[in-house]
């Protein structure tokens, strides 16, 4: 393992393995084609795509031709070919569990897209099966790697605003992604969860040609972390329709003498700032008397860094995962590159892991706990969940059983189901 820059002159470099990992891409639908396929040039030092597998022959063949790899239309045939060390699973969530345990049982390391699974039982089984077979199993959570979270973590490390005891997040992305963000921010797992939900009728409207709405949901999640830390995470209409606040919404990280904040702007990544109270302000009303803007630096279609000038000195997060080509969504795509490079490095022996299997499962514990709490009218529920014989799990299980005609916890039965992603 090394940090060599020679392959990419003039660019920042993340840790580079001694040789790329031979991988299969499992799933050649829209997400895989529009996000991952274009990143493999940037990922050449870390991964070498040698196979593509998708149940839709047209998808697999087209993708394989584009990346110069072997095409497979059945996971069993891919495994028997013995071509790969690892796999990127970019398939429908319904089959994440079946694919994951199949790969673990055959000794293939794998990185699964979010969300980890459909049920908490599946998530726990995925992590346990990988551990039993000595397989590196990771979940590709990119939200923890977005630029605001990166610079906020660096600011928090300085202690400038004091310990962050409370988070308020409005209209961003409640659910698995945001759950993961709070785990990483606090470096701990929550102790309890509470949630309420609401749905109301709205004027019929079209979000897109294939998305028609007559009602609108809303949910509010509360997570209590150790050391008296609280997260309040709420949202309804995430796309900003009907005049609702647009993503990334508004976020406050509340410290003991200041706040790190971000608000939505015309551009998707929003604008951040640090608000701080001097000693004089603390003695006279405690209105913040200093504001330090966070600068999001993009040059020639590359996310370079995020930085802020504070009285204690500059604080900066520099992006170690720049792209091989410029892109208008560089800040989000670099986050995807980041979780793939981390995974490849772990396969090659690195012990650095930003988002462990235990974290990935806990994010699902939080999500299922929220569903169950909402069904119980906001009851506070301890985490991790002691009993999976709960209504929230049963409802998802029943829905999947009706949809696919087999037990969704039976990996072999689910592997027989062809689920195509558009």
UniProtKB/TrEMBL annotation:
Residue span(s) of domain Gfo/Idh/MocA-like oxidoreductase N-terminal: 22-140
One Pfam family named in its UniProt record: GFO_IDH_MocA
GO molecular function: nucleotide binding
Family matches, as PANTHER family: BILIVERDIN REDUCTASE A
Record-given protein name: Gfo/Idh/MocA family oxidoreductase
């Amino acid at each position: 393992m090394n940090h060599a820059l020679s392959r990419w002159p003039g660019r920042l470099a993340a840790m580079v393995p001694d040789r790329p990992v031979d991988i299969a891409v499992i799933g050649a639908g829209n997400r895989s084609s529009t996000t991952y396929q274009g990143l493999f040039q940037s990922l050449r030092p870390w991964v070498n795509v040698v196979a593509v597998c998708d149940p839709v022959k047209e998808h697999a063949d087209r993708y394989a031709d584009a990346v110069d790899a072997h095409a497979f239309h059945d996971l069993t045939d891919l495994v028997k070919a013995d071509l790969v060390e690892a796999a990127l699973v970019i398939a429908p969530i319904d089959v994440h569990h079946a694919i994951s345990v199949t790969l673990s049982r055959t000794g293939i390391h794998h990185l699964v897209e979010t969300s980890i699974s459909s049920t908490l039982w599946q998530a726990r089984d995925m992590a346990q099966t990988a551990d039993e077979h000595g397989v590196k199993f990771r979940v590709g959570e990119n939200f923890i790697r977005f630029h605001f979270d990166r610079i906020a973590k660096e600011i928090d490390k300085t202690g400038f605003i004091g310990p962050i005891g409370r988070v308020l997040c409005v209209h961003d992305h409640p659910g698995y992604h945001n759950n993961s963000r709070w785990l990483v921010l606090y470096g701990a797992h929550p102790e309890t969860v509470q949630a309420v939900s609401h749905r109301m009728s709205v004027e019929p409207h079209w979000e897109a040609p294939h998305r028609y709405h007559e009602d609108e949901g809303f949910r509010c999640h509360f997570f209590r972390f150790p050391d008296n830390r609280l997260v309040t995470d709420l949202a309804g209409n995430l796309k900003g329709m009907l005049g609702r606040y647009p993503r990334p919404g508004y976020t406050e990280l509340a410290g003991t003498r200041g706040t790190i904040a971000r608000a939505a702007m015309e551009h998707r990544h929003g604008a951040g700032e640090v608000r701080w109270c001097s000693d004089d302000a603390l003695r006279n009303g405690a209105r913040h008397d200093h504001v330090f803007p966070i600068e999001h630096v993009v040059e020639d279609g590359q996310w370079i860094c995020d930085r802020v000038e504070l009285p204690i000195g500059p604080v900066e997060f520099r992006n170690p995962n720049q792209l091989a080509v410029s892109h208008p969504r560089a800040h989000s795509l670099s986050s995807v590159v980041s979780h793939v490079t981390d995974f490849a490095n772990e396969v090659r022996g690195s012990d650095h892991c930003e988002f462990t299997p235990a974290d990935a499962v806990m994010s699902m514990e939080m999500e299922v706990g929220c569903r169950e709490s909402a069904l119980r009218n906001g009851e506070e529920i301890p985490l991790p969940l002691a009993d999976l014989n709960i209504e929230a799990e049963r409802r998802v299980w029943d829905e999947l059983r009706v949809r696919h005609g087999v037990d969704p916890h039976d990996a072999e039965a689910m592997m027989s189901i062809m689920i195509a992603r558009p």
